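Archive entry. Fields below.
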Amino acid sequence: MKIRNTPEDYINLNPLQAGGRTVAETRLAVNSYADGYAGYDQYSGPFFQIPKKETEQLIDKLKIFLGADGIFFTHGVREAKYLLMQSILENNDSIIVDGNAHFSTVLAAEKLGVKVFQTKNSGFPDYKINPKNYETLIESLKKKNQKPRLLVLTQVDGTYGNLVDAAKVALIAKKHDIPLLLNSAYLSGRTKVDIGEIGADFIVISGHKSFGVPGHIGALGVSEKWIDKIKSPDKDAKPWDLPARYLAITGLLASMDTIEKRVGNWDEEVKKANWFVEKMESLGDIKLLGEKPKQHDLILFDTPILERISANKRKKGYYLAEKLKEFGIIGLRPGQTKELRISTYGLTRSQLDYVYQTFAKLIKEENHGI
Amino acid sequence: MKIRNTPEDYINLNPLQAGGRTVAETRLAVNSYADGYAGYDQYSGPFFQIPKKETEQLIDKLKIFLGADGIFFTHGVREAKYLLMQSILENNDSIIVDGNAHFSTVLAAEKLGVKVFQTKNSGFPDYKINPKNYETLIESLKKKNQKPRLLVLTQVDGTYGNLVDAAKVALIAKKHDIPLLLNSAYLSGRTKVDIGEIGADFIVISGHKSFGVPGHIGALGVSEKWIDKIKSPDKDAKPWDLPARYLAITGLLASMDTIEKRVGNWDEEVKKANWFVEKMESLGDIKLLGEKPKQHDLILFDTPILERISANKRKKGYYLAEKLKEFGIIGLRPGQTKELRISTYGLTRSQLDYVYQTFAKLIKEENHGI
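PREDICTED_STRUCTURE:
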């Protein structure tokens, strides 16, 4: 079959893949366990048991990294949210979710017959989530005798890459005695998020989105008092489900050794994102959507100039992604020109300068009618 | 974390790992997709959809390889058996299973409240399954008005490595109009098993046991008339489950390119197994259990001589595995000396001769009281 050569041959701007790039150490570790049933070497009991050694090491590392007392593995964030909700919520319960939440948060709740109330964001152009809106919504639900059973905060949303101050939401949660879940899919692993320090009860993280892990793995981290409440599939479904995750567990454990280093670069990552935004906006008719200055690497640009350029081309919307690929730049959604959704994470300043120069060239050529 | 160096540094006799060793092409392909969300490149719709291109290619290849009309992926054979049983069986139904079936077959049925009847095997020393016993058991159940709804045949069992003639069981199944499932975990992928030619209705296969695939993946293959009966999790659980399998799907697809070649060596694999059995039995007080001549590479020896040797050592049962490791031979269950359960699959004759010479040396030293 075809070998994927993306990491070696292209600058990849795809916002979903930025935090999931694997480092050499992780690839080596995973490769060494690639043989079918290689995990069997590590089993300490009947072969369907979770391989103890690696898993326990990983759990210990994650507890410290997340400030959590209990760790439950899933295939990803959406499953981790669902795992939590099915453990602590009941049909007809109400929850509050931020206005920039991913649809899968709402989906998980609705699957359980839970009513979802969303806070508003601030709208064009920065679409910010104001922690105070949680308070307003709680009060209004309480008046209707629908006190919410859970607050969910998307720490960084996947559209604008806005960062919300989780500690402020945690204070509100504490005041009203409602547990708080942080959806940290795009934050934890890029930087350190400690639910103990923040005062949140739960966190969900994504191995393949922000920890550079192959195979798909997520986790739910919970504080002490909630551990026994979680209806973990690890308890019920051992023989059927667990071996499937071995490669991903190996990958996440290998990755953790490098994650602790990489979170030290987070300030530079954010500076680099703002530096790139400034350069791109200087091209004119390209405008950042979402908060400014940015506090994260996920970037959404409003790009009418690119839409106009593409409209004149034979391939219309598909012109842009194809043209950029000729320049070795990939990760744009084909057909999308009105907005540009990218990530600068892990790319060097000289790579990003090259991206900027390439856009400058395309726009300049167009203005000269070439 | 620690890098597993088994494939490079040791002769591995572990019977569970023999058919799952990955080839270079598979490792390269999987490695190229190791980045988190790399599968995203291949999605043709919303990101939670199954990645079309690779999956469709893989399904087409498997249909031909298995002679099946429908393919459903799972995490392994036990899940594939469960998927089938929950689709076509009901509480209180009866099924017939061979006397050498893995406990997970029985477990899957019992989880659904299905009654399991097992055929006898022929007992010491060859423990063979006689297809005729299915007929006897069907007749006796029919008399009690408990006509079985499914026959399950473990084509090659994991203990003795006995091969049963599936075509003979298929004739009995046809005669009584009962569908037949082949558990081919240890056969398909080592050699070609075609349910159309055999006349079976279903087959379950294991990527990590017999197709050299990293990540854990199994599949259920079904004949035309059953396709719509399968309550596939692929239909119900898309957003939650599918992305988790991408690395394994990539691995199995990469592997299929080499599987078609390797099944051509099957006759030599079986000859080699018999050659090795003969050498080991020549050491005296080592005796093959299971059918003779062998038709498969999974081998169980009765080894009282090794038990006696170990009994005299300080480490008792653990002596043998540790001693062999010094000679670069691994894969024995630590502590186990009364019986030796190994596989010769994929090892060269000169490697196996070295294994034989090593056992000969240990036994000779013992006899001389060294």
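CURATOR_NOTE: The longest strand of chain A covers residues 70-74.
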